[in-house]
TrEMBL record:
InterPro entries per record: 4pyrrol_Mease, 4pyrrol_Methylase_sf, 4pyrrole_Mease_sub1, 4pyrrole_Mease_sub2, Cbl_synth_CobJ/CibH_dom, Precorrin_MeTrfase
GO BP terms: cobalamin biosynthetic process; methylation
Pathway recorded for this protein: Cofactor biosynthesis; adenosylcobalamin biosynthesis
Domain Tetrapyrrole methylase: 31-239
Protein name, per record: Precorrin-3B C17-methyltransferase
Keyword Transport: no
NCBIfam families membership: cobJ_cbiH
SUPFAM superfamilies: Tetrapyrrole methylase
Gene3D superfamilies (UniProt xref): Cobalt-precorrin-4 Transmethylase, Domain 1, Methyltransferase, Cobalt-precorrin-4 Transmethylase, Domain 2
GO molecular function, one term: methyltransferase activity
PANTHER family with a match to the protein in the record: COBALT-FACTOR III C(17)-METHYLTRANSFERASE-RELATED (PTHR47036)
Swiss-Prot/TrEMBL keywords: Cobalamin biosynthesis, Methyltransferase, S-adenosyl-L-methionine, Transferase
Region spans: Disordered: 1-24
Length: 289
């Protein structure tokens, strides 16, 4: 491969590069975008597993590739973060050259992940790529894994917002967040904080505190399904102060006005959001109506 490329091949003997460079003259292969889920192997769907096993080439972010056991004869093309379009273009060139390619993504590939990058690269790239057979295999996204761990916080209407301003201005994020708060959605915040932007989650939660009750449940769900999993359920006032404890592996979920806690002695409470907003929810063990 090109020494200056952000993509690295585990079998970098020049063969793959030669194939990719001559892709227009090769038979068409296929490309499957695979969701690995949040972590636990049994959360990987059979269809996603089959796509991984059938692939001649795996393309993805290095930490995601590391979650897949090595297989003889399968070439891995790893890369760092923030090169999604380059990664997608590389995968499309491989598929155009006749390879069976699996692009791996954490969680669900269609939620702030590689499926959109593949189609962006497809639209802007070689017109011949549009003949490639492309499949997207869904996975369990972080908000669904976090919801399952804590009860049923997504039982009512909800939305997902990425706090990363790498691809959109912060002003767009805050405009959408204000609209979601005004509409009383449960709000799932992806990419809440990073070393380059340590302040954004705190600002988002402070904004939520201007429109939601101080006791609104907020879930911090970190690395759900992995050995370092950590779950915390905090009232909104405490969540604002705890914003700096989150990281990129954390999914933050802000409850709606109807989101409830069911207290349990000596255990983490259950969190749920009633399906109906036309009736008063039943009294919970907290005594709230």
């Amino acid at each position: 491969m090109d020494p200056g490329s952000a993509l690295r091949s585990a079998r970098d003997d020049g063969a793959v590069s030669e194939i990719a460079e001559n892709s227009d003259r090769q038979s068409k292969g296929s490309l499957t975008v695979v969701g690995l889920g949040p972590g636990e192997a049994h959360w990987l769907t059979p269809a996603a597993q089959a796509a991984i096993e059938a692939a001649t080439d795996l393309v993805g972010y290095d930490p995601y590739l590391a979650r897949i056991p090595a297989r003889e004869g399968q070439t891995r093309h790893g890369s760092d973060n923030r090169v999604e379009i380059e990664r997608a273009g590389h995968a499309l060139r491989l598929a155009s050259a006749g390879r069976t390619v699996a692009v791996v993504s954490g969680g669900d590939p269609g939620v702030f992940a590689m499926a959109a990058a593949v189609f962006e690269a497809l639209e802007a790239g070689n017109p011949a790529w549009r003949d490639i057979a492309i499949t997207v295999e869904p996975g369990i996204t972080a908000m669904l894994a976090a919801a399952a761990r804590t009860g049923a916080p997504l039982g009512g209407d909800f939305c997902a917002i990425s706090l990363s301003d790498n691809l959109k201005p912060w002003e767009v994020i805050t405009t959408r967040l204000k609209a979601a708060l005004a509409a009383d959605f449960v709000i799932c915040l992806y990419n809440p904080i990073s070393k380059a932007r340590p302040w954004q989650l705190g600002e988002a939660l402070a904004l939520a505190a201007t429109q939601r009750s101080p006791e609104t449940p907020v879930i911090f769900a970190r690395a759900v399904g992995r050995p370092d999993e950590a779950l915390r359920i905090l009232p909104l006032t405490e969540a604002v102060e705890a914003a700096g404890t989150a990281d990129m592996a954390t999914l933050v979920m802000i409850g709606a006005s109807t989101t409830r806690l069911i207290a349990r002695e000596g255990q983490r409470p259950y969190v749920y959001t009633p399906r109906s907003v036309t009736k008063s929810p039943c009294v919970t063990s907290q005594g709230r109506t």
